[in-house]
Specification:
globular; 16 strands; about 375 residues
Length: about 375
């Protein structure tokens, strides 16, 4: 969703006309502000946040076909994909698809066997992408995965861009207020994880490593919610981390930037990310990264410049001590991080790259589905 909103904002600012087709959060189908919402029901037991279309959308599809889009850009492999494909076929527009999710990291949600789950994912991805003209992926990690699945369509890597205004540090006031709320002192160093609390995010690894740190000034903020929150909280308490690890729960989107600013080091052990937008958000907020090594970080983390990646606990502990023990070094990496993401992952750069791809097809004006 973040990448879709970012792209829409960038394209609109460039003067393109954009219409959106998506699923509503209820059974009602309606249109508002160039967005058509098709009635749906939740299917979260099959896959997190998934929804199924329950209303026929012939009128909505017909209206968008008659609008004569130059490009149809799909962002989902499920219900809206079929509608996007129909619009592209009937309007004669090319169908471009952005593949966001490494589904094989989520097999525990829909398959009793990991091996079978991965085979299902490969078959499903290959079948869906055979019906499009061009595939966009956020990182080479995803491109290489699709190639291994046998996808034959052209694949272009375009990193998602973000609007960074809400992640800029606005001073110490918001930072101090949040730290005071959760009992983090001025001389404490706060690690922060922000994101979904689920098995594939591997938060418990960070907790285990953190529990072996004896520095009493180290604290950790875990910001977010998810299906494994209770399990992760129980792990923290069993490791004796009560008072050192603070679970904030879900926070409003407009406060996310303030929570990043309350931290000193961003940590993550997930290897299920396609690009890891939270890494980029944290860097925009001026935080150095300490994250488990993953292919999606190859163009994000510059070792010793804006953060560190680790493969072993020994490396994690070494880099954490280095960052926690040297304030000047930590601040230097944080400043480098901010400069880097503003140069490499801006909303404008993202929109420019996608527009160039559109113009290589049949036109400039996109529709998102």
């Amino acid at each position: 969703m973040t990448s879709v909103l970012s792209l829409i904002a960038g394209l609109t600012e460039m003067g393109h006309e954009v219409r959106i087709l998506t699923l509503s959060r209820n059974l009602h189908t309606f249109s508002s502000d160039n967005v058509t919402y098709v009635g749906s029901i939740g299917a979260g037991k099959i896959y997190p946040n998934a929804r199924f279309k329950v209303k026929r959308a012939r009128a909505a599809v017909r209206e968008l076909v008659e609008w004569h889009p130059d490009v149809v850009h799909s962002q989902c492999e499920f219900c809206t994909f079929r509608m996007a494909r129909r619009i592209a076929e009937k309007s004669g527009a090319p169908l471009i698809h952005t593949y966001h999710t490494v589904y094989e990291d989520y097999t525990h949600y829909f398959s009793p066997s990991e091996r079978l789950g991965k085979r299902i994912v490969a078959f499903f991805s290959r079948r869906i992408l055979s019906k499009v003209d061009q595939v966009i992926v956020p990182t080479d990690k995803v491109r290489d995965l699709l190639i291994s699945y046998g996808v034959k369509k052209p694949i272009m890597t375009i990193p998602t861009g973000l609007k960074f205004d809400r992640f800029r540090r606005s001073g110490d006031r918001e930072r101090d207020l949040i730290r005071q709320r959760f009992g983090i002192r001025k001389d404490d160093i706060a690690l922060i994880y922000l994101g979904r609390l689920a098995e594939e995010k591997n938060v418990e690894e960070i907790l285990e490593f953190f529990s072996r740190q004896s520095n009493e000034h180290l604290k950790m903020l875990v910001v977010g919610d998810g299906p494994d929150r209770k399990t992760i909280e129980n792990t923290a308490w069993s490791l004796g981390l009560e008072g050192r690890v603070i679970f904030t729960g879900m926070v409003p989107p407009d406060e996310v930037g303030s929570y990043y600013s309350a931290g000193d080091i961003f940590v993550c052990a997930s290897q299920s990310e396609t690009q890891g937008l939270t890494y980029i958000e944290a860097m925009a907020a001026g935080l150095p990264l300490l994250c488990r090594n993953d292919l999606c970080l190859q163009e994000v983390v510059i070792e010793g410049v804006n953060g560190y990646t680790y493969d072993t606990e020994q490396e994690f502990q070494y880099y954490l001590k280095k960052l926690a023990g040297d304030q000047e070094h930590r601040h230097k990496l944080g400043k480098n991080a901010t400069r880097y993401v503003f140069d490499e992952f801006s909303e404008k750069r993202f929109a420019d790259a996608v527009t160039a791809l559109y113009q290589g097809g049949k036109g400039e004006a996109p529709i998102h589905s």
